[in-house]
Design goal:
Strand order of the largest sheet: 5-4-3-6-9
Protein name: NagC regulator
CATH architecture of the largest domain: 2-Layer Sandwich
Pfam family, one: ROK
Largest sheet: 5 strands, mixed
Radius of gyration: 23 Å
Number of domains: 3
Helix content: 25-40%
Organism: Mycolicibacterium smegmatis (strain ATCC 700084 / mc(2)155) (Mycobacterium smegmatis)
Strand content: 15-25%
Family: Belongs to the ROK (NagC/XylR) family.
Number of helices: 13
CATH superfamily of the largest domain: ATPase, nucleotide binding domain
Length: 395
């Protein structure tokens, strides 16, 4: 985006704030911008011209239905791309996305559990670079890189803070691995938080209070209350997978402790149990596929996982009173089975008042939720009003 000299006095709202109205479709014409912002026609024209020069906004004539129609202002989602990398314990999902988070090209990397950053990230960067060609966007401006990891994340240092399931990652800054690919910002977050932001922006935006449960190899939740993502005092909000539950008493968890919910309800625990039974499964996705063939044991275990999770989540529903509970992660592939069990214990243990209007719904983005979440996180950072203004005025 070409820098322009800052004006002597920048009257609010700024071009970045005007862009936010257009990006969120709250204003689609110059007249609507004027009414929403109180800006004069001349001021609106100046800000729209700056956004058009930066490539972020395009203006198109609408089809006439009589009289002269107002030209439509549109967010130019093809002004560039962002990279998305959702890193898991045994699988990493990669994507190139346009500026509204639509996936243009994607791929998966299946990796050995416990792989170190030095072994995974160089290959990850090469795969992202190859995806530029697959997406036919080799020459596109790269706005940023969105990353997600299981466990708590320190956004200040750009590193895992505490992930018992990702040995060797804690405290390792990840942005330097991407310098050969781009000098754009690298935004890192917890995987469940990223999914929660994507689900709210992607279609559940009418809910200011929601829990987004990632039920996959591990268990975690993204919490949005009052329209704001809640991270907690040490970035550990939503890490309910290692909550103790009586049903898991004495059962060893992969975190090294015993009695954790994950030890009986996490995807890895289901895989472990079926492997001991002689089944050829390596991931929760295999368990879900087995359930779809009608396998009674796989179906029983998925429903039982829902029961255990619902029992623990009942306390969260009582405390937080969300309007909606979104189910995401690989378990969404067996949504009906899983939720049948979850409803049974959630409604049986939560208060009638807290569940009176509670809705339980599947992820909008399904198996792509992690990739879209990573893209959404970085887009909300690099396309914020402050970031747009800084790019325009060379700050």
């Amino acid at each position: 985006m070409e820098a322009m000299p800052p004006p002597a006095t920048l009257v609010s709202p700024t071009p970045g704030e005007v862009f936010a109205l257009i990006r969120d479709r709250r204003a689609t014409t110059r007249g609507e911008l004027g009414r929403l912002t109180g800006l004069s026609r001349t001021a609106v024209t100046a800000r729209v011209a700056a956004l058009e020069a930066g490539g972020l906004v395009i203006e198109r004539d609408q089809a006439s239905t009589g009289g002269r129609p107002a030209a439509q202002l549109m967010f130019n989602v093809d002004a560039g791309v962002v990279f998305s990398a959702a890193i898991g314990r045994s699988r990493t999902q990669l994507a190139v996305c346009n500026l509204d988070g639509t996936i243009l090209a994607s791929t998966d990397i299946d990796q050995e559990p416990g792989i170190a950053p030095d072994d995974l990230l160089p290959d990850l960067v090469k795969r992202l670079d190859m995806l530029l060609d697959e997406s036919a966007r080799r020459d596109a401006h790269i706005f940023g890189v969105g990353l997600s990891l299981p466990g708590t994340v320190d956004q200040r240092t750009g590193a895992s803070l505490d992930s018992p399931n990702m040995s060797g990652w804690d405290g390792v800054p990840l942005a330097p691995y991407f310098t050969s690919l781009t000098d754009a910002p690298v935004v890192i977050d917890n995987d469940a938080n990223a999914i929660a932001v994507a689900e709210r922006r992607g279609g559940y935006g009418e809910y200011d209070d929601m829990l987004v449960v990632k039920a996959s190899t591990g268990l975690a939740a993204g919490i949005i209350m009052g329209g704001q993502l809640q991270r907690g005092a040490v970035q550990a909000a939503g890490e309910f997978g290692h909550s103790k539950t009586a049903a898991a008493a004495g059962v060893h968890c992969r975190c090294g402790d015993t009695g954790c919910l994950e030890a009986i309800a996490g995807g890895w625990a289901l895989v472990r149990a079926l492997q001991r039974d002689g089944r050829a499964v390596n991931h929760l996705r295999d368990v879900v596929a087995l359930a779809h063939t009608g396998d009674p044991e796989a179906r029983r275990m998925i429903r039982e996982s829902g029961r255990h999770i619902g029992e623990v989540l009942a306390a969260a529903v009582n405390l937080l009173n969300p309007a909606v509970l979104v189910i995401a992660g690989d378990m969404v592939g067996a949504y009906d089975l899983f939720v049948a069990g979850l409803r049974e214990t959630l409604y049986g243990n939560a208060t009638a008042l807290a569940t009176r209007t509670l809705q339980i719904v599947p992820s909008i983005h399904r198996e792509r939720s992690s990739m879209v979440g990573c893209a959404t996180n970085v887009l909300d950072r690099v396309l914020s009003p402050d970031a747009v203004d800084a790019a325009m005025y060379g700050d």
